[in-house]
Design goal:
The protein is α/β, with parallel strands linked by helices and 428 residues long. The chain has helices at residues 6-12, 38-45, 60-73, 84-93, 110-122, 136-140, 165-174, 187-190, 234-237, 248-252, 256-269, 275-285, 288-307, 326-332, 348-358, 388-393, 410-425; strands at 77-81, 101-105, 126-130, 147-153, 179-182, 200-204, 218-222, 312-316, 340-345, 363-364, 374-376, 400-404. The protein binds pyridoxal-5'-phosphate (PLP).
């Protein structure tokens, strides 16, 4: 399927039924697998032959969906996880340990900031944030011999800053480390980070990939392009005692990173998805290309309306010509800038709350990126745990509303916004 477009692979990539097989991806609701000989199972445990041994590590339903996602991103392999948080943990922990550090853009998802600043810190892994005002020299000075990777989001949630993937890939590679990109908001339909030099991609599949707000999940994808054989990543190039001295780069070549993530980290952390959740993500992805187009069209129309609207103090959407990230959006997101918009309602926090309470079609939910239009106030919810300084660094203000524009008729969405703004005006 690798010669087909992303759109075709959204529909048909991954599961390839044989003669007389079920047309639709079967849900293999089994923790375990059967073998003809004890020797074969022994070989499986030694990773000498491919195959499934236990659903914590791999499962045929999950495997088919991982193949689809790897195909969509143009990678050599993927590992699905129980959540986006687990995907980010796996992606980073696969090549870091206590005493080491990594560099991350500061403008990222609040849950990821917590993971980096709280839990990874407890594990002795230090995050060093790149903030927008830093000079090139200051950014370079963040790196030392214990720096393992660079992390950023294609479209930052919720700051909506677009990552200059080529520039950060060049920065990472200059320092001999890979670039990991969280591609959740763009999806491979709008942007394929590997084409611009990213080495590893992660997703919260909870968002657009599922697209229906039904199932929490994540995935790590390996481009297979990063050269681990530099002496800097002994976990991939020296024997793993827990597999009788297997060396990942020798046994798995350019799939070393993703194989280690599965057979070592997934084995030990157990953050695996269920077969039924993988099935649901697969169903969602069958329409991903259509949904991303409609989300992006609707969001651009809503953003233009809000920009022209007297009751709005500011609008942020990278697809708007007025956006400071418009040039980056043209380069990295030519097919659309996804459905998420941020804006401020005139009248501050009170007016913002009144606006949200007055919406009838758009619901207040702790979610983004599903088919239904919804809104959220990041400062009092998803980013509540952040300090004021962290809020500013993450690009969030107190009056900020994050709207995830759905795939309903845009005229109905606009009418709902108009009537809610009229209500909000009354408390100015
Ligand atoms: C939601 C989200 C996550 C976390 O994913 P979960 O599936 O909620 O665990 C990580 N990164 C980004 C960009 C997200 O939007």
């Amino acid at each position: 399927m690798s010669n087909y477009s992303v759109e075709t692979n959204c529909v048909q990539g991954g599961y390839q039924p044989g003669n007389g097989d079920p047309r639709i991806l079967p849900i293999y609701q089994s923790t375990t697998y059967k073998y003809d000989s004890a020797e074969h199972l022994g070989d499986l445990f030694d990773l000498k032959v491919p195959g499934h041994m236990y659903t914590r590590i791999s499962n045929p339903t999950v495997d088919a969906v991982e193949k689809k996602i790897a195909l969509l991103e143009g990678g050599v392999g993927a590992v699905m996880t129980s959540s986006g948080q687990a995907a980010n943990l796996m992606a980073i922990f696969n090549i870091t340990k206590a005493g080491q550090n990594f560099v991350s853009l500061s403008s990222i998802y609040g849950g990821t900031i917590n993971l980096f600043s709280v839990t990874l810190a407890k594990m002795g892994i230090e995050v060093r944030y790149v903030t927008p005002e830093m000079s090139e020299m200051e950014v370079d000075a963040l790196f030392d011999e214990n720096t393992r990777l660079v992390f950023g989001e294609t479209i930052a949630n919720p700051a909506l800053k677009v990552l200059d993937i080529e520039a950060y890939a060049a920065l990472a590679h200059r320092h001999g480390v890979p670039l990991i990109v969280d591609n959740t908001f763009a999806t491979p339909v709008l942007c394929r980070p590997f084409e611009y030099g990213a080495d590893i991609v992660v997703h919260s599949t909870t968002k657009y990939m599922d697209g229906h707000a039904s199932v929490v999940g994540g995935v790590v994808v390996d481009s297979g392009k990063f050269n681990w054989n530099t002496g800097k990543y002994p976990e991939l190039t020296t024997p793993d005692a827990s597999y009788h001295g297997l060396v990942y780069v020798e046994s798995f070549g350019n799939a070393a990173y993703i194989m280690k993530a599965r057979v070592q980290l997934m084995r030990d952390l157990g953050v695996s998805p269920t077969a039924i959740s993988a099935f649901m993500v697969n169903m969602g992805m069958e329409t991903l290309h259509l949904r991303m187009e409609r989300h992006s069209q609707n969001a651009l129309e809503v953003a233009r309306y809000l920009e022209s609207c007297e009751d709005i103090s500011w609008v942020s959407y990278p697809g708007l010509e007025s956006s400071p990230d418009y040039a980056l959006a043209c380069k990295y997101l030519p097919k659309g800038a996804c459905g998420v918009i941020s804006f401020g309602v005139k009248g501050g926090r009170m007016a913002a709350m009144k606006f949200m309470d007055s919406l009838k079609l758009a619901a207040i939910v702790v979610h983004v990126a599903d088919v239904r239009t919804c809104v959220l106030h990041p400062a009092s919810t998803t980013h509540r745990q952040l300090t004021d300084a962290q809020l500013v660094a993450a690009g969030i203000s107190a009056d900020q509303i994050r709207m995830s524009v759905g795939i309903e008729d845009v005229q109905d969405i606009l009418a709902d916004i108009r009537q809610a703004l009229d209500e909000a005006k009354k408390c100015r």
